[in-house]
Every structure is written in C-alpha cells, then in structure tokens.
Specification:
The protein has 17 helices and 6 strands. With about 375 residues, the protein is α/β, with parallel strands linked by helices. The strands form 2 sheets. A 4-stranded parallel beta sheet has the order 5-2-1-6, covered by helices on one side. A two-stranded antiparallel sheet has the order 3-4. α9 crosses α10. The chain is globular.
Length: about 375
C-alpha cells in the first residue's frame, strides 16, 4: 500500500527553519509597527564614519567602524538632552564622548582596543594640555622633517600578520621617525606618534577590508587567484607630512587666538576607562548615567585585532597579547556563555533570561548552530 506522505516533496529542514524565522520576524514587526518611525535624515552617510571624513578633528584617523559626530549631535538634540552624564561602553575613537562634551555634557567611555585609547588620549592632550610652544614644535617637524637626519632607528614590534607590511625603505623611515620623536616632550611625542598611526595603512602593502587585511601584489605575501592592487602606496615622507599639516590646519585658528579648540560653550568633562566593559561596568554606581549611547559589538565575530594589526604592533602589542585581546573582545559579544557572564555580575540574570525567552533570537541561534555542526 502506498504511503502518499512519502510521495509529497520533502522541505529541507533549513528551509523550514527559515520559514519559521521569517514568520516570527513578521509577527514582531506587526506587533511594534506603530513604534517604527522613518527618519529620512538618518541616511548611510550620517550613521557611518562617512560624515566624519571631512569633519575637522574627526577626520584625522579613519576609524571606519565609528558612527558620525553628526549622528550623536542629532540624537542629543532630538531628545533634548542638554545636561547630565553620558556613557559609551564601547567608546571606539571617542565620537560620542567628544560630541557630548562639546555641548557641555560630562561623558565617560570604556575602550579595550589600544588604538581607540590612543585616538581619545591624543585628542584630550590636544584639547586640554597642548601649548603654543608644542604647536610650534609640531610645525617645525612638518617643515624640516628632522627624522631624516636621525642616525638611529628604533625597531618596531612585528607580529605574524604584519611581517613584511612595508617596503624596506619605508620601514627604515618609520624607525628613524620613532627614534627622533623620543627626544620631544610627552605631548609632542604623543601627537607625532598619533600622526604615524594615522598613515600606517597608506604607506603599507595592506588595506583594511571588512575584518581582514588585503595584501598588495607587490608584497612578499602569497597572493590569491586574483592579485590585489591597492593603487599608489605613499612614501613615508609624503604621507606623514600631509597628516601633520592636516592636524595643524585643524588647530591653527585656535592657536592663533591663544587657546586650542576654542568653544562657545562650556566643555563637559571626559573620562576614559581602559579595559573590557564587562569588567568595568559592574563597578560603576547604579543610576549614575542619564544617557547611554553606543554601538555595541555585532554578532559577526568581527576581529578588530586583525583589522588594526599594524597599529597594535606599532603600539607594542605582542603575539600573545593579541590572542588574549582577541578573546576579551569576543567575550563582549552575545556569544559569551551565560555562566561566564553571571560569574562577572550575578545581576545580569534578568537580562540573560530575557534573551533566552526571545523567540526570534533563539530561532536564529539554533539555525546557526545547526549550520555550524553540518560544516564541521
């Protein structure tokens, strides 16, 4: 006797799961439909780093994962946030902190990645400690390129992923430049090091591409099926001179008036906590902040230690530290196990319970786990 059910086309399990996910998603969308509001002003340019590319000060370092200062300003204005204290637990390059400070808000940030800390600390030095004499010294470097006369070189840290990243002549220039700025005071040294961090990609064989570094065909690295050509690779002198002049141009007006970064309004204070937000946030007092504005880690295992490998190596982060840093960063994502989170802070139990009961999230996670097991 025929089993007619066997004659019916069988829908693969992954398709059934996709249908279920789409169904739950539709239900949620319909439930919250009256809460959605289309804001035409929030286009790709304003919510990404693109709006910072030509914005003085923010343009110095191309931190592509950042949102724009314009977005922070828009949100603070829209919700009439004119006083209080703001927190960004994933501070990145400090966009939230400085945009909030510019309107008089006190801002705290937490950042684990050392390149983010360098960007924030350099700007704080420029805004709060830099003198006219310091400005004059940076101007001297821009015009006279004193590193070219240096007879010593300071070797820079290399990790596995950065070996062979620069033409040999460029590497020699970098090491002479580092050796030369050791003679300057701590403020000038910080700014000169920051300028170097800003140009590493431009003078290297690499280009940041998603969560990877792409290697130019002129490097000694093995190429894929289609060799990559990143185009012009700037000489060290050309790149660093352009960057220093850009920094000087953005602070020129203030220095001529006897103060750097003059402001029409009272600046809010900025504090930076260095480390993992998972470790630092439980130590912060309850009900201490009026606003939390941040861009949390995505659910895509984004490896910033690879993307910013050149910068981390120059800052002295070694191979073992890279591995530990990568693990710390992944621990800040939704992939962290509940028991590990509760070991840090038992008060997170309600948040974990809420995610466990979120049907759409759990359906997606189940689908991903099954796909992962199949690939293994």
């Amino acid at each position: 006797m025929l089993d007619f059910q066997q004659l019916e086309p069988q829908i693969p399990n992954h398709q059934t799961q996709n249908i279920e996910i789409e169904h739950i998603n539709t239900q949620l969308y319909q439930h919250f439909a009256d809460k959605f509001c289309i804001e035409d002003v929030l286009n790709r340019k304003i919510v990404s780093f693109q709006a910072n590319k030509l914005k003085p000060i923010y343009r110095w370092y191309k931190y592509k994962e950042a949102f724009s200062a314009s977005l922070v300003e828009y949100l603070l204005d829209k919700y009439i946030i004119e006083s209080g204290k703001i927190l960004d637990p994933f501070a990145g390059s400090g966009t939230t902190l400085f945009a909030a400070s510019n309107i008089g808000l006190n801002a705290d940030g937490i950042e684990l990645l050392s390149i983010g800390k360098e960007i924030i600390n350099t700007r704080l030095i420029l805004e709060q400690e830099f003198t006219v004499d310091d400005f004059t010294k940076i101007l001297y470097w821009s015009k006279n390129c004193p590193w070219e006369k240096s007879k010593t070189q300071q070797n820079i840290q290399e990790i596995k992923i950065t070996t062979g990243a620069y033409p040999q002549e460029t590497l020699n220039e970098i090491q002479k430049y580092i050796s030369a700025y050791q003679e300057e005071n701590c403020r000038v040294k910080q700014v000169l090091q920051f300028a170097l961090l800003c140009v590493l990609e431009a003078i290297s064989y690499t280009r940041k591409d998603g969560q990877y570094l792409r290697w130019d065909y002129r490097s000694s690295r093995q190429q894929g099926n289609i060799p990559f050509n990143k185009g012009e690779i700037l000489s060290f002198k050309q790149a660093i001179s352009i960057k220093i002049r850009e920094i000087l141009a953005d602070i020129q007006t203030g220095s001529q008036q006897g103060e750097l970064f003059p402001s029409k309004t009272k600046q809010g204070g900025i504090r930076l906590f260095t480390g993992s937000s998972l470790d630092i946030m439980p130590q912060l007092p309850n009900s201490y902040y009026d606003v939390i504005l941040t861009s949390p880690p995505y659910c895509n295992r984004y490896d910033y230690t690879r993307t910013y490998a050149l910068e981390l190596a120059l800052l002295g982060v070694g191979q073992e530290e890279i591995v530990n840093l990568r693990q710390q960063m992944l621990s800040c994502t939704v992939e962290n196990r509940p028991k590990d989170l509760l070991a840090i802070n038992s008060q997170w139990s309600n948040a974990i319970l809420a995610t466990d009961q979120q049907k759409l999230l759990q359906a997606i996670l189940q689908y991903l786990e099954e796909q992962k097991s199949k690939n293994n």
